[in-house]
Amino acid sequence: MLAESETAGKGTKSFAVCLFDKDKDAERLPSLIWPLPVLQKTTNHLLRLLGMCYDEELLGLYNILSDPMRAIRMDLKMQHISTVGAILVDEHMIWFHVLAMHELCEYTNEGGPSEWFDGHLNIEQMN
Q1: Closest Cα partner for 97 from 62, 56, 52, 58?
Q2: Which of 3, 25, 33, 111 could connect to 115 by a Cys-Cys bridge, CB 3.0–4.6 Å?
Q3: How far is the C-alpha of 65 from the C-alpha of 110, rounded, in Å?
Q4: Average confidence (pLDDT) per 10 residues, the chain, 127 residues
């Protein structure tokens, strides 16, 4: 889910996020489930990306970050983790969805699936 890469010729870090593949990850083998420290680090990285473009690009970033966030929630749920660290990860994800609901609620489905925000799906993910 998390990767950092060097931008060609600039030496600055950019982000790379693997998308959550429902079909491939549906079985969620134990070897594919990440431990809490990895989930915390990945969540922190993903949320730092919001600070990079908190403007009109937020909708596109929301669409990119939703899938890895869902995968993190699935890993936490499958491991039945209820430590303070897991609760903080959940709180950060709730913040992400509340922010999305507040900032993106005016986007409708006029531009097509990749350019709109589904508030009902966002609430479902938050729950």
Answers
A1: 62
A2: 111
A3: 22
A4: 39 50 57 89 88 70 86 90 93 89 73 66 83
Q: Where do we find the tokens 């303070």?
A: 84
Tokens standing for residue 54: 């908190």
Give the Cα-Cα-Cα angle 4, 95, 84 (nearest 5 degrees): 85
78, two tokens = 């499958």
Q: Is 124 left (phi over 0), alpha (psi -120 to 50) or beta?
A: alpha
5 SS3 class: strand
pTM value surpassing 0.85: no
What's the confidence (pLDDT) of residue 9?
Answer: 34
Q: How far apart are CA 81 and CA 67, in angstroms?
A: 20
Helix axis angle, 36-52 relative to 58-79, nearest 10°?
A: 170
The one-letter code for the residue type at 89 is V
Distance CA 71, CA 4 (A): 19
